[in-house]
Specification:
- By secondary structure, the chain is of the alpha/beta class.
- It has 2 domains: about 5-180, P-loop containing nucleotide triphosphate hydrolases (Rossmann fold, 3-Layer(aba) Sandwich); about 215-325.
- Helix content is about 40%, strand content about 10%.
- The chain contains 13 helices and 7 strands.
- It has helices at about 15-25, 60-65, 80-85, 105-115, 140-150, 170-175, 185-190, 195-205, 220-230, 245-265, 275-285, 290-305, 310-325; strands spanning about 5-10, 30-35, 50, 70-75, 125-130, 155-160, 175-180.
- The strands form 2 sheets. Strands 4-5-6-1-7 form a 5-stranded parallel β-sheet, sandwiched between helices.
- Helix 5 links the parallel strand 5 (about 125-130) and strand 6 (about 155-160).
- The protein starts with a strand and ends in a 7-residue tail after the last helix.
- Bound molecules: zinc ion.
- Zinc ion binds near residues 29, 30, 57, 59 and 60.
- Zinc ion binds near residues 28, 29, 53, 59 and 60.
Length: about 325
């Protein structure tokens, strides 16, 4: 059996809860056959879903307490609160610096490598979870590669990645890869009801329901669209509503721009389905080439991601640049 799985899916598809569930099942001392329907883990490859954790053995108790010695999680420090991790889970891997790192650092992988060759505490499997693997910085990725090339006996690696192309091809080739399909209808029902507001949130996140806030940026996008539709005069940063923050602004503009492109090509809006009318109207004022360029820029901006030094300034120019794709008769 291969000792490393690489599970990939867009952000918000539930890789983290699924990998946690799989890790618990691998470590459980009296696992139960079959998986739980309606949980993200049911969408993992069959090999990882044949059994589930019992929930009450010593191993399960240690996992619930966040202190299982045979489970190691490598995740960017900035994500620990969101992932529900504490420094104990990380083997006390908190960095010295004041700002939490967005990367998985080399120190974390060195610790993982040392842990991987040590003896199992409970005499069973050991599981290392690397999430998201896209966040491995180059030095950390190379250090992990060394271990994946000669995996220590009895260690199961579970890597979760948002984007495969962000990973070293050499890491990818050392893993069994599986893409995780979209959340199922029953998972969606658990998260969303059926009101109009919930329908627009669901369209906006396109199945990425496991994000901390699936509707993030939606309200702003709707307001922006209304502002853009209202006036055909030249927009300034004071006539357009500022985004909640820069990364949210970039992500939302990407969705607006791709919907404009879809509508321009005669299709239906995907993210802003209830704004089809406004989008069609606006799409008539955007030259397709300019729209294509704007999409290209936004994709590049999203890859750079993170918060720029001067957020307000960056958001202003982001908006102005976007509003300029609309021809206003000159
Ligand atoms: Zn158990």
């Amino acid at each position: 059996m291969s000792s490393a799985w690489l599970i990939h899916a867009p952000q918000g598809y539930g890789k983290w809860p699924a990998l946690q569930r799989a890790a618990s099942a691998l470590l459980c001392e009296s696992p139960v056959n079959g998986h739980a329907d309606g949980h993200a883990s049911a969408r993992l490859p069959a090999a990882l879903t044949t059994q589930r954790a019992c929930g009450h053995c010593a191993s399960c108790a240690l996992i619930q307490a966040g202190s299982h010695p045979d489970l190691l999680v490598a995740a960017p420090e900035a994500l620990w609160p969101e992932l529900g991790l504490n420094p104990a889970d990380e083997g006390a891997g908190r960095s010295e610096s004041k700002t939490a790192s967005q990367d998985i650092r080399i120190e974390q992988i060195r610790r993982l490598n040392d842990w991987a060759v040590s003896t199992s505490h409970r005499g069973r499997a050991k599981v290392a979870v690397v999430y998201p693997a896209d966040a491995l910085n180059p030095a950390a990725a190379n250090a992990l590669l060394k271990t994946l090339e000669e995996p220590p006996e009895g260690v199961q690696f579970l890597l979760g990645a948002h984007r495969l192309d962000a990973l070293l091809p050499t890491i990818r080739s050392r893993c069994r890869q599986a893409s995780m399909p979209r959340p199922t209808a029953s998972e969606v029902r658990q998260k969303f009801g059926s009101s109009a507001a919930e329908a627009s949130e669901l369209a906006w996140c396109q199945g990425a329901i496991y994000q901390p806030d699936p509707a993030i940026g939606l309200e702003w996008a709707q307001t922006l669209l209304a502002s853009l539709s209202r006036s055909s005069a030249r927009w300034t940063s004071s006539t357009l509503p500022p985004p909640p923050d820069y990364p949210t602004g970039v992500a939302a503009l990407l969705k607006i721009a791709s919907d404009l492109q879809r509508v321009q090509a005669g299709g239906d809006a995907l993210f802003l389905q209830q704004q089809q009318q406004a989008l069609s109207e606006l799409a008539r004022h955007v030259p397709p080439v300019k729209l294509g360029e704007a999409l290209h820029r936004l994709v590049a901006q999203q890859r750079r991601a993170g918060f720029p030094l001067n957020q307000a300034l960056a958001s202003d120019s982001l908006l102005l640049e976007f509003s300029q794709i609309f021809s206003t008769g000159d």
